[in-house]
Amino acid sequence: MEALQQAGVWLEAECGGQGTCATCAVQIQDGRVLWQESRLLSPEQIEEGYVQSCQATVQSNITVMIPETAQSASDRGYIPDIAADEDIALGLEPSPLSRKMVVQIEEGILRKGGSDLQSIARDFPPSQDISWTLSPLKGLPKVAHGDATEATITVVNQDCGRSVIRIESGDTTGRHYGMACDIGTTTVALKLVDLNSGRTLEKASAYNGQMECGADVISRIIYSQKSGGLQDLHKRVLRTINRLLNMVLTKRGILPDEIVSAVFSGNTTMTHLLLGINPKYVREEPYNPAVTMVPMLAGNDLGLHVNRDAVIFLSPCVGSYVGGDITAGVLYTRHHRSHRGVALFIDIGTNGELVVMGDDWMIGCACSAGPAFEGVGIKCGMRAATGAIEGVTVKDQGDKVDFQVIGGGKPRGLCGSGLIELVAELFKNGVIGRDGKIAMDGKAGRIRSVRNQRSLVVAAAEATATGKDIVITEQDIANLMRAKAAIYSACALLLKNVGLTMSDIERVYVAGGFGSHLNFKNAVMIGLLPDIGLEKYEYLGNTSLSGAHLALISKSHRDKLLQIARSMTYIDLSSEPGYMDMYTAALFLPHTDVSLFPSLA
Amino acid sequence: MEALQQAGVWLEAECGGQGTCATCAVQIQDGRVLWQESRLLSPEQIEEGYVQSCQATVQSNITVMIPETAQSASDRGYIPDIAADEDIALGLEPSPLSRKMVVQIEEGILRKGGSDLQSIARDFPPSQDISWTLSPLKGLPKVAHGDATEATITVVNQDCGRSVIRIESGDTTGRHYGMACDIGTTTVALKLVDLNSGRTLEKASAYNGQMECGADVISRIIYSQKSGGLQDLHKRVLRTINRLLNMVLTKRGILPDEIVSAVFSGNTTMTHLLLGINPKYVREEPYNPAVTMVPMLAGNDLGLHVNRDAVIFLSPCVGSYVGGDITAGVLYTRHHRSHRGVALFIDIGTNGELVVMGDDWMIGCACSAGPAFEGVGIKCGMRAATGAIEGVTVKDQGDKVDFQVIGGGKPRGLCGSGLIELVAELFKNGVIGRDGKIAMDGKAGRIRSVRNQRSLVVAAAEATATGKDIVITEQDIANLMRAKAAIYSACALLLKNVGLTMSDIERVYVAGGFGSHLNFKNAVMIGLLPDIGLEKYEYLGNTSLSGAHLALISKSHRDKLLQIARSMTYIDLSSEPGYMDMYTAALFLPHTDVSLFPSLA
User: Fold this and answer.
1) With A147 labelled, which of A7, A322, B307, B316 sits at a CA distance of 20 to 30 A?
2) What's the number of domains chain A is made of?
3) CA–CA separation, B177 and B201 (whole Å)
4) For chain A, which residues score pLDDT lower than 70?
5) Do B115 and A291 touch (CB under 8 A)?
6) Does residue B492 sit in the same domain as residue B379?
7) CA nearest to A279 within chain B
């Protein structure tokens, strides 16, 4: 695995290279490696020369075939997410963190006395109010003595005062770009935004390059405590972001230097790792992170492929487990919602975060769901991107399975919404029982059994884009059930804490990296979401990214975002004694207590 | 020369590698080089295998001996300048650009909720008034969760607002350091300053590493227009500064990170090159530099070996040829002087700058003197450092020469003050005539003649530290005369411009990198300074460095410095038609018009 990494090939490694999963298996075609056979690989794989790359020691020059399943998703190519959000900028007068302004240069330059700086920047002199960074000073002679009679300067707002960060010849106010970026534990999603209109120009997403270092925030924090681990994690997420950036910039013919402001939203650990700040105390009593409200920084501070003086705004965190992704998500939700009254916001990701809010109060908590909803830890799982099965219908007791694929075409795997729908359909059809085990054999040969574990073929090899069966295993179903139980029990406990019941909730806003049509009926059927009436549910997609977008283009939304972080009350579920019992009770389909799900009766 | 530079060996090259001087001559001991013999080398040198390294092409592996005379002065080791300035901080309550403050951490860290940042920085929260850089954020976890119950934060003042740039465990307010640095065209001088007391801890100086690229600002500007030239010059001066810094820091056991503020003063071209800004337009009509009042920058912007967020203040320039060294020099002069009335300030360096000032007005000009006063372009010249002959007495018509050496011991060369005194003494004794030519043969064998050029042995090989004769040549004398003529005629023209005469001047303050006792009588005798009464003269040493020191430690002096730059009127001598005539008239000892020097009669 190290040799592959040195060669620039990044593998999936859910366990972080501990040897306890086999997602990093590769086929040795030539040469010698030393390794101990593992039960995690099938006899066929072992026969074909597969090894767990994290457990194999290279002993000669070798030739390796990397199966597509092992390739890091971040290397499989970047496929824009599908989500309608072009209404974000509607009705907003853009007031980004950066401004471009035209200044006349002709006159001043020819006048004797003074400097180019004094001539060009007479309206923006270095002063108590405006500072200049070095880059535009370096650019002055060429701009001042070139052919153009006007120049464009870019001014950014910082925590205190403003700063001139760029100077260009001519009027370039038409080219004014920023980026919004959601840093998820599993997935990084990014938007290139036209700051003049506030509208999205390009979107892209990829698995977080930190995936190889562990699947959830706790394993990332543990990894960060290794020698060089923190720096490694910082570089990995940065590489993911910069790759996505380069892709969208190249596509649009925009230079990194032209990105002059950026907003990031991520959970508290992701925020620390982006900044290269040790997240150790996020998970140690009394669970105070190093930073929650992060000062504005510069592009160069982080090593981003943007203007070195670009202003970087980080969505503020509330506590160790309610981060900037949630404050941004709440920002977008409040911007979006027309309904008043008590609302529940649920962001379903690797961590599940829940916020109950009234018009002037809000309280939040977090739970660890694991990355199943993002397609990780699922045998044929994948992100909600082109080729993902996002919807499923099961008939004939499991013998007939129909599905919809994002982007049409042949399927490559199952994304979160497809997985939920598949399990719900299998449950509804009696193919799986309340314990999540496959309960029948079927007649169509879809049900298979390997070493006491059963699986069902969703799409046979000849019908898939990978040429391999797309299956769901009992292990996948168990992973999904743990994830849904974590979310449901967190929801129940949060409401209990504020003295509310499920029925008090008038509206539920669901966020997460699902496919575009999460089927709430199915989500309720598997017990992920409370059974309080489907009409109350609304799916908002990646609200962290949408909130970051709002903050990028609007001053009033940046102010609101900070206000949300300041006013949110944070409940620590891990210190609530009842949580484990409620979690265990939710580890059935839909729940041990079926009376909680009356509509399913 | 390029091969040597790549190997890290820097040679003197007064002509900037054009082949027109022979200071870069080295001896080829083995191997083949291609080059054309040059008249600039003596037949003995050619016999011994010497070549001009800038003109020789390497054709095989070669072994080269680098004579001490060719070694770049910046490689010969750094010798602290000798100048008494410890009174600078006297009576000043330090108010530097940076402040260190102790904060209590114990309590906040144990309290649940919030972040380390909120706990530690409750008095300095990121806000409209205070920003934080990334470095102290990264330092937070270790400091907050360490054993110490208090921490020290460093806050710097920037153009707008303040910024927290550093956090340390415990109370480290006793360690608070800054640097002042004069960047001369020929010599860089630096002080390490204790910002608590305002006093100098260490001083060091060295030839500017740009020397190899030309001796004066004009040749530097020309060099900067070559491909890569600007970046090369920027890196060279940076290397000189960082070397000096490393030396003084190592000596005192201070870390680069502990240098949290710095003030630089240099002429306008040096200021541009330090910043990496193209100085091209300094010497093109209408002679407006890119910047004069430079915004505050960060250590990292320049690549200085100081704290990456250290605040960098540059002494403001007035115009293309009156720079930050002069405003700093005037600042120190006005701080120092007790006398009121019309004063003349003369900074004698590679450029000569003159300022005439009253109590509430000042007018300045500049002339190109060349680097002779700094020991460059003089066969046995050197800086005013240990081993330099700084005082000379000539007797017996040149047959007997006594001298004083800086630091005692055997002499290594002649510094500016020694050169002035030597020429004055030789003139007084009739050894040289009014045209600067050696007029007699002497009896002691001190006078020699090679190819129609005469020279005088000041110290014979057996009495020197180099084991070679220290001589003065007619060429050296001619260089000195050009330099003194430039200064004297600039002085005459400046006074004429403001309607004053020499006799209106009540006090003359002389600055420059001479030895500590510049003999004004001799300076007047050779016609460098006007003959207006020795009691009016005062030598202030490196006023640029002293002014930078004042600005480093005092807010009111920074304000005064900016006020000086704003209020100084600048006269451009190059556009004055009478200047060349006055210059030519001054190319004699002491002058063509001896009536201007009544005391010499």
Assistant:
1) B316
2) 5
3) 9
4) 5-18, 68-86, 106-112, 124-128, 514-517
5) yes
6) no
7) B141
Per-residue model confidence as pLDDT tens digits over B372-407:
888 888 999 987 777 889 889 999 888 899 999 988
Nearest CB among B162, B286, B317 relative to A112 is that of B286
Nearest Cα residue to A144 out of A107, A187, A90: A107
Q: Helices B268-275 & A134-144, crossing angle to 10 degrees? A: 120
* Number of cross-chain residue pairs from A and B with Cβ atoms under 8 Å apart: 173
Query: What residues contact A63, with CB distance under 8 A and at least 6 apart?
Result: A28, A29, A30, A31
Q: Which of B131, B287, B293 lies closest to A295 in CB terms?
A: B131
Regions of chain B with pLDDT less than 50: 72-84
Nearest by CB to residue A145, choosing from B142, B277, B281, is B281
Q: pLDDT tens digits, residue range A286-320?
A: 888 999 999 999 999 999 999 999 999 999 999 99
> Which residues lie closer than 8 Å to A185 by C-beta, 6 or more apart?
A208, A210, A215, A216, A217, A220, A267, A269, A270, A349, A350, A351, A371
Q: What is the CA radius of gyration of chain B?
A: 26
Residues of A in contact with B113 (CB under 8 A): 286, 288, 319, 570
Residues 6+ apart with CB under 8 A from A225: A280
d(C-alpha B120, C-alpha B98), whole Å: 19
CA atoms within 13 A on the CB side of A20: 8
Of B415, B397, B410, the residue nearest B514 (C-alpha): B415
- From A453, A474, A495, the end of a domain falls on A474
- B141-150 pLDDT, tens per residue? 999 888 888 9
pLDDT score of A8: 54
The helix-helix angle for B324-336 and B543-553 (nearest 10°) equals 80
Give the H or E element holding residue B366.
strand B362-368
- Which pair of structure tokens corresponds to residue B265? 């003063």
Between CA A430 and CA A439 the distance in angstroms is 7
Considering only CB atoms, which chain A residues are within 8 Å of B159? Answer: 126-128, 130-132, 161
Query: Measured between alpha carbons, how far is residue A7 from residues A71, A229, A268, A318, B433 in Å?
Result: 13, 19, 31, 39, 76
- For position A92, what pLDDT does the model report? 86
pLDDT of residue B295: 92
Task: Tell whether A147 and A203 lie within a shared domain.
Answer: no
Q: What is the pLDDT of residue B79?
A: 38
Mark whether B182 and B281 lie in a shared domain: yes
Same domain, B165 and B63: no
pLDDT at B112: 67
- The neighbour count for residue A559, using CB atoms within 10 Å, is 11
| Domain range enclosing A238 | 178-314
At residue A98, the pLDDT reads 96
Looking at residue B268, what is its pLDDT? 96
A160 and B128 in contact by Cβ < 8 A?
yes
Which residue shows structure tokens 């979401």?
Answer: A529
Same domain for B521 and B571, yes or no, is yes
How far is residue A290 CA from its own chain's centroid? 22
CB contact under 8 A, B158 and A109: no
Report yes or no on A92 lying in a domain: no
ipTM confidence score: 0.81
- Sheet with B200-207, strands from edge to edge, namely B200-207, B187-194, B177-183, B259-266, B311-314, B297-298
- Does the model's pTM come out above 0.90? no
What are the structure tokens assigned to B279, written together?
């100085």
Residue A367 C-beta-side C-alpha neighbours within 13 Å: 26
